[in-house]
């Protein structure tokens, strides 16, 4: 398995990513092509992803997929209510599923500051902390070796340092919530001041809840 390398996306990159989408429709099948912002990749390279899905607009048939995407972009963002949102962070993703949800935010603040916020405010949402391991600091190469599970895969950049902080929470309903804070810094360029912190909130319902 090839190890994944997280691409840093600031507010402008997120908007550019959303705007650079193509969508095609054949009956009830949707094919989308998403292009990455050019400044995230090496010069001369183009990054893109392909996704296939089905139309699922409730109580409303879209004349075409572009109209459907326009409605999705223009509607108000759904709110996630299982954990506090970090002040000033921009939400990059919210995915709700039957047994839980995943929300991803980007913030300019440090991991330490965001960590203190969640330790202080998670109890207000009836969460109690279960595990709180020290932050893990690895180079991108070390991270790939540890989590890539592939000795022959590309080993990453030794100049990129990844800091990973995870906290696990639970409540009396048998539910779980993991708060993960991730930041990638270029050690060689000393670009830590411009690095964004990714805030991942993963919520899992109890086994008896649907």
Detail the topology: elements first, then pairings.
Elements: H1 11-19, E1 21-26, E2 29-35, E3 48-54, H2 65-74, E4 90-97, E5 100-107, H3 111-121, E6 128-132, E7 136-139, H4 140-147, E8 160-170, E9 176-186, E10 197-204
Antiparallel strand pairs: 1-2, 2-3, 4-5, 5-10, 6-8, 7-8, 8-9, 9-10
Largest sheet: 7 strands, antiparallel
Write down how many β-strands occur, each being a DSSP E stretch of 2 or more residues.
Answer: 10
Number of helices: 4
Could you tell me the mean pLDDT? Answer: 75
Principal-axes geometry comes out as globular
SSE arrangement, N to C: HEEEHEEHEEHEEE
User: Given the helix and strand composition, which structural class is it?
Assistant: alpha+beta
Low-confidence stretches: none
Task: Calculate the terminal CA-CA distance, rounded to whole Å.
Answer: 32 Å
Helix content: 10-25%
Portion of residues in beta strands equals 35-45%
Rg, nearest Å: 19 Å
């Amino acid at each position: 398995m090839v190890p994944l390398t997280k691409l840093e996306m600031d507010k402008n990159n997120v908007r550019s990513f959303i705007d650079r989408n193509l969508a095609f429709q054949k009956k009830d099948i949707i094919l989308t092509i998403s292009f990455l912002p050019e400044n995230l990749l090496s010069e001369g390279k183009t990054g893109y992803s392909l996704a296939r899905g089905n139309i699922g607009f409730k109580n409303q048939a879209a004349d075409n997929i572009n109209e459907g995407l326009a409605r999705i972009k223009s509607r108000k963002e759904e709110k996630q209510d299982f954990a506090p949102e970090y002040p000033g962070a921009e939400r990059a993703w919210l995915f709700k599923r039957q047994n839980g949800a995943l929300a991803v935010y980007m913030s300019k603040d440090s991991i330490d500051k965001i960590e203190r916020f969640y330790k202080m405010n998670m109890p207000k949402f009836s969460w109690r902390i279960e595990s709180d391991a020290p932050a893990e600091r690895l180079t991108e190469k070390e991270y790939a070796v540890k989590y890539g599970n592939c000795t022959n895969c590309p080993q990453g950049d030794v100049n990129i340092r990844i800091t990973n902080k995870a906290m696990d929470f639970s409540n009396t309903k048998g539910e779980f919530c993991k708060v993960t804070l991730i930041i990638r810094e270029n050690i060689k360029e000393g670009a830590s001041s411009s690095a964004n912190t990714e805030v991942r909130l993963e919520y899992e319902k109890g086994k008896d809840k649907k």
